[in-house]
Design brief:
By secondary structure, this protein is α+β, with helices and mostly antiparallel strands. The chain has 13 helices and seven strands. A hairpin with a 5-residue loop joins strand 5 and strand 6. Helix 1 runs parallel beside helix 3. The chain is globular. The model has no long low-confidence stretch (mean pLDDT 89).
């Protein structure tokens, strides 16, 4: 609560208190959300608590925050059923646009909220994978369209749709393979991986879903495992260490951590821009 302390010290204190689920932190959260320096970590801290009023507070503040803070709210709201159901209602009503929800987060919401989320979101795991789907996108990403694409827009959608897991030119996350040196110039290669990410999947990239005894859900892949702990790389978040004694359920799924349908939430111009960015051979600032 000491506003004259260094931001790094206050953030560290927040992380410690939220990790321990200290109840004294809960009444401080509304005031901490008012402070730019600690707001992001305060949003993350909400996921440690099963408190409906905190979820409602985040949704009330959602329109006022910047893109990074909004993204963190979405991830926090997908961490628990009590929050996930609140978020699902906001998506259904249109108060939070569907486009604000990354597909990996939608997958987690499906598990947190239950099958009723499909009625709100639509298909999550099942998307067309036939020749017609390939042809549909190949007809969109013509050479002329790619040549005139806005690479800044493409980078924005890369960071939203791909950058939570992949790096390119040093930007993004380390959850999936680095795309910098991949076969990105071949549009068929990109389409195959986007439309059928689970067609060829290494064990290291299978989606793992862990639910803890206190009801929190994590989605990611296992970075390390000991007799007592699992270290999980989590989409869009820091790596977490989970004590096995605190795990209620662990599901190693038969599907890739990369979800299908990444293009489904994008307009044609956005798909073209993303594809053009994926094919660029230089870093875009």
């Amino acid at each position: 609560k000491n506003k004259t302390a260094a931001s790094s010290q206050r953030v560290k204190a927040l992380q410690m208190l939220s990790a321990q689920q200290r109840p004294e932190l809960v009444p401080e959260i509304p005031d901490l959300l008012k402070e730019n320096d600690v707001r992001l970590e305060t949003i993350r801290a909400v996921a440690s608590f099963d408190q409906e009023p905190l979820g409602r507070l985040l949704l009330e503040k959602y329109p006022l925050y910047n893109e990074m803070e909004k993204s963190e709210i979405i991830r926090t709201m997908a961490s628990r059923p009590i929050y996930g159901n609140l978020l699902a209602k906001e998506i259904k009503s249109g108060n939070i646009p569907k486009n604000d929800i990354p597909v990996p987060v939608a997958r987690q919401l499906h598990r947190v909220v239950g099958s009723g989320f499909i009625e709100i979101w639509g298909p999550i795991e099942d998307f067309p994978k036939d020749e017609a789907a390939y042809e549909q996108y190949k007809n969109i990403i013509t050479e002329d369209a790619l040549a005139n694409a806005d690479l800044q827009v493409g980078k924005k959608h890369f960071m939203q749709s791909c950058g939570n897991c992949h790096k390119m030119f040093g930007e993004g996350a380390d959850l999936g393979p680095d795309l910098t040196g991949s076969n990105r110039l071949d549009p068929d290669y990109i389409l195959m991986n986007v439309l059928e990410p689970s067609a060829e999947i290494q064990d290291a990239y299978r989606m793992v879903v862990i639910t803890t005894l206190d009801g929190r859900t994590y989605t990611g892949n296992i970075a390390a495992e000991s007799p007592r702990q699992i270290t999980l790389k989590v989409i869009g978040q820091e790596t977490v260490m989970i004590n096995k004694s605190n795990i209620q359920n662990k599901e190693i799924t038969p599907v890739s951590l990369m979800p299908p349908g990444l293009f489904e939430a994008l307009e044609e111009e956005e798909i073209i821009a993303l594809m053009a960015f994926l094919q660029t051979q230089k870093k875009i600032n």
